[in-house]
Design brief:
Elements: E1 2-8, H1 23-35, E2 40-44, H2 57-73, E3 78-81, H3 85-93, E4 98-101, H4 111-118, E5 121-125, H5 143-160, E6 168-171, H6 180-188, H7 190-194, E7 201-202, H8 215-229, E8 236-239, H9 242-251
Parallel strand pairs: 1-2, 1-8, 2-3, 3-4, 4-5, 5-6, 7-8
Helix pairs in contact: 1-2, 2-3, 3-4
Pterin-6-yl-methyl-monophosphate (PMM) binds at residues 6, 8, 13-15, 48-49, 81, 100, 102, 123, 125, 171, 173-174, 201, 203, 238.
Length: 252
């Protein structure tokens, strides 16, 4: 199982907002995660926590591109966490080899075409709308069936735009337009997503549904999820604490 280390160059993300929002602190944290064994560093400049308001493309570019450049110069495998095709393109030109699009292509009509043209790996996440009001869209009958159907629809569009099948990675979008019970259901039934035939990435790290009064309680819950997911054949986890996840994976 791969470990993707989270590098949010933002003042306001789910749990690490404001920690790494200067160039120096972001690069230092990226290098530290590489030293801990991160397989991929996921760099994002726009917070997607519930209620977040969008920033401009210029602001997003200015936050992420210098960090992508520097870390790729240092040999890191970089994923750019963005919903904007313009940011994806600039990041790939700066050295990123994965596009991590939390909107799965829904936020920017050009995204699938740009990913196809650039030939990079494309992480297609389940998403129902921007963070400002996504909680109102957390209405499901069978959440797993609906997430699968909506992922399949976006995969169809991605393939039609020319993204090669082997470049696509799926993500159920834990915490995005999902209530706590939806997140747990998706985690418990993740093999049904794996059965779609694509590598699967899970991003549960330190998210609100884990409960707990402190980040360390959420961290323990995150590690337990990774441990439980090891037998499911998922491709990777997107996490804040690389060293502890590498240790859990190595133990099994
Ligand atoms: N979660 C966040 C941001 N980007 N990307 C993928 N592929 N999957 C996720 O679950 C995901 C993501 C939000 O979490 P953060 O604010 O802790 O980074």
């Amino acid at each position: 199982m791969l470990v993707m280390g989270i590098l949010n160059v933002t003042p306001d993300s789910f749990s690490d907002g404001g920690e790494f929002d200067t160039f120096e602190s972001a690069v230092a944290h990226g290098l530290a995660m590489i030293a801990e064994g991160a397989d991929i560093i996921d760099i994002g400049g726009e917070s997607t926590r519930p209620g977040a308001i969008r920033i401009t493309e210029e602001e997003e570019l200015s936050r992420v591109i210098p960090v992508v450049k520097e870390l790729s110069l240092q040999g890191a495998v970089i994923s750019i966490d963005t919903m904007r095709s313009g940011v994806a393109r600039a990041a790939v030109e700066a050295g990123a080899t994965y596009i991590n699009d939390v909107s799965g292509g829904l936020a920017d009509a050009q995204m699938h075409h740009v990913a196809a043209e650039l030939g990079t790996k494309y992480i297609l996440m389940h998403w129902r709308g921007h963070s400002i009001d996504m909680n109102s869209k957390a209405i499901y009958g069978d959440v797993v069936e609906e997430v699968k159907a909506e992922l399949k629809e976006e995969v169809g569009k991605a393939l039609a735009a020319g993204i090669a099948k082997e470049k696509i990675i799926l993500d159920p979008g834990i915490g995005f337009a999902k209530e706590s019970e939806h997140n747990w259901e998706l985690i418990h039934r993740i093999t049904e997503i794996v059965d779609l035939g694509y590598p699967v990435l899970v991003g549960a790290s330190r998210k609100r549904f884990l409960g707990g009064d402190s980040p360390s309680e959420r961290e323990a819950a995150t590690l337990k999820i990774t441990e439980d997911l090891l037998a499911t054949g998922i491709w990777g986890v997107r996490v804040h604490s690389v060293a502890t996840h590498k240790a859990v994976i190595a133990r099994v």
